[in-house]
Peptidase M20 domain-containing protein 2 (Corynebacterium hindlerae), 448 residues
Amino acid sequence: MTDKYTPSTAYLDQINARVEEKIATASPVPTELGHYSGQEELWDGVDKAAQQFHEELVELALDLHAHPETAFEEFRSAEQITNLLRRHGFDARKGVHGVDTAVRAEWASPDFTSGEHPTIAVISEYDALPGIGHACGHNVIAACGLGGFLAATQVLKDSDAQGKVVFLGTPAEEGHSGKEYLIQAGAFDGIDAAVMIHPFTYDIGSHVWVGRRNLEVTFHGKPAHASSEPFMGRNALDAASLAYQAFGLMRQQMPPSDRLHAIINEGGERASIIPETAQMNIYVRSLYTDTLVDLSQRVDDIITGAALMAGVTVTTNWDVHPATLPVRNNHALAERWRTTQARRGRDPLPAGIIPETLAASTDFGNVSHLIPGIHPMVKIAPVGVALHTGDFEQAAASDAAAEGILDSTIGLGQVIVDAIVDPALLDAARADFAAAGEPVRCSELFST
């Protein structure tokens, strides 16, 4: 029997059972490569190149795992990645686009012309979580992105293909939005599509990622002796408490995929003094850009109303770190990814198998609203092992992680090559992106 303080797994058990039912009836992953000349030879070349680089990539992943660095502090990690790129002949640069721990390297064909030939970016992350290291597996992401870049460029160098491949090392995804800083600095200008992977407990071609904003709130009241003259005070903690309770009441009317979490991180110093200030830290998450805007407005209304009820004033500071948008998955590129993984013996799930309510946030969403992009998931841990836990941190240095690095290096390399040499694929990716709506810049969406 479980003790009453341990949450029941009944809901997750039911979800996992429904997922298994859907998996059993899901359509098989397509294995057709397409019909442009030389594709089989190019894919075989990527496979061989990935095998060649695999040992180095696993060593890199394990090294990053053993030396975790948090957001914007990834100096050693950036150095290791830069050194590996330079060993393979690339002019890798650190501190690009105004971010000290960002890394960039490029390969372009001899006759490359911007606007005429495609440019594809492959992304690595390498920041860790405070206290539990690489419990989100960014060391694996780093190795896979780097491997995809090395494998694709090695094959393209020996072909007649015209295009450019850009490697971007993007810091500070955890709790921050490093990619948005890079976007604002022009890192993705001129890029036609972007690809990356994320480790998980399932292989998934397209997964839901919700948008996220953060809000810091300070209520300003008037202090007073809580016993002799409480009527002369205005209690800032009352306003924070009212807002916190109102958030709980509002959740009944929120869409099931929306999330709202808040803490009161300051509420006074002594019980005998009416608190003059109270502070809250709030995360607002939603599945779509327009619903994220709507939920943000509702949160603003609650904060204003709480201050009014308590007779205090309030200051709000939205997006201390830039907001992250929901991921706009590109179905054309995702289907090509699923094909690469089927040939590796994996069976990536299509969109809609994993419930939308089981979703986190990523700053790749900001990239995916500017250009076609994919952010598939690669299984490195058993079902039931959650991200941001000690168990997943161990999985990020396991044999399964090493297998995931090989398969993902091959997959990313093959999708990059395809996007450059197969015009029909890139056209389909662009059409899919356009069908989802106009490009969205996070800095413009939340500029007011």
